[in-house]
Amino acid sequence: MKLTSDKIQELNQSKLSSHQEELNFLSNRLSKEGHDVESLIQKIKDFQIAVPSWALGAGGTRFGRFGIGGEPRTLEEKLEDIGLLKALTQKTDSVSLHIPWDIPSDVSGVKELATDLGIGFDAMNSNTFQDYGQAETYKLGSLGNAKKSIRDQAVAHNIEVIEIGEKLGSKGLTVWLADGSNFPGQSSLRNSLQWTQESLQAIYGKMPGDWKMLLEYKPYEPNFYHTIIPDWGTSSLLCKSVGDRAKVLVDLGHHLPNTNIEQIVATLMYQDMLAGFHFNDSKYGDDDLTTGSIKPYQLFLIFCELVSGAEDGAQAWESISWMIDASHNTKDPIEDLMQALEMIGVCFTKALLVDRKKLSACQIEGDVVGAQECLQAAFQCDVRPLVKEARIQNGGACDPISVYRELEIRKKLINTRGADSRSTGL
Ligand SMILES: [Mn+2]
Questions:
Q1: Residue 144 and residue 195 in contact, taking contact as beta carbons nearer than 8 Å
Q2: 345-393: per-residue pLDDT in tens?
Q3: Among residues 238, 308, 307, 299, which one has the least CA distance to residue 273?
Q4: In a domain? residue 181
Q5: Is 422 part of any domain?
Q6: How many angstroms does the Cα of residue 95 sit away from the middle of ligand 1?
Q7: 59: domain CATH number?
Q8: How many Å lie between the centroid of ligand 1 and the Cα of residue 20?
Q9: Tally of structural domains, the chain
Q10: Residue 248 C-alpha to ligand 1 middle, in angstroms?
Q11: Does the keyword Transport apply (predicted)?
């Protein structure tokens, strides 16, 4: 199904006057503090986040999976769902595809549909963490496997992903490796790293000149003794050995508890080595929870580093890719993605409000209390009217979730696709 802009505007009407009151109140306050409100709104409007094709169906755990009904059955239906998200939130304008889950059977048809919905193709994702009928098994690893024939197969798969992405107009390849070992002695720690490096070099060599490689890291899971790329340092080291267009991808859930992720972001930007972001949230590990649902202050601090790193010229904002990477076990995925997009917009906006001049002066003076006051002044400000205004100006809904519910969109999707329809993915 497709949502027209007219329908959204019609549903916005009854909510506009109270929104305007709240916006005026906040705008007056921010203007008095020296902020350029129009420029803030423009920055929020411009900030768009990609949605991965695997986030639109119900995810599962190793214990089970509970369908939500009306899940997209095909790549085309996944694009339609992202079209709905875009129409409602105006905060996402691209999809990140996964191969082999999303191999397009009709490339020009898929491109046409995406263009019609205003959706572009973000980085492509390869998959060497599970078997799907290929000749050799990835049970004991892929790009870093001790067997050359398996490494070759994994390299060939990544090259195939690049070829599919080229046809669609993507400009990046995301590589996440499940490679590692579960037991001491199972694999050679040094050799597996070297094989991974050689495999990545072979893949990079086949990437078009205007593509980038986004190399993800993860400290554990599915392997629990060692993972070949456990942290940003190892990812960075491999990227440097591969080429200039290979950079580190930070997935918020891929850190041990209490890791200072904002420091990692600052360090990577310092070296112009940040490829992009995978947004989610977690309490314990890679929990795939809704972005900002557990640690909104951490998300704000991360955005403070991103905003200051870009404003100071450490790394260009435009060179960084943004994507939500979450899986949905309990919530309707479309509603969950709307909540995530809202929180990303809110924390980004709060980071834009930080008085960086004052903060810098506090840092030089050693005024620790003053520095914290600077951050809290921005973090405690309720910026939702600004985020809402940016959405309305872009043609989105005043309140996306209430429109989604009012129009009974999930019910309509179930009527069309069935209660048992199942989306490809995790
Ligand atoms: Mn990820």
A1: yes
A2: 999 999 999 999 999 999 999 999 999 999 999 999 999 999 999 999 9
A3: 238
A4: yes
A5: no
A6: 14
A7: 3.20.20.150
A8: 38
A9: 1
A10: 12
A11: no
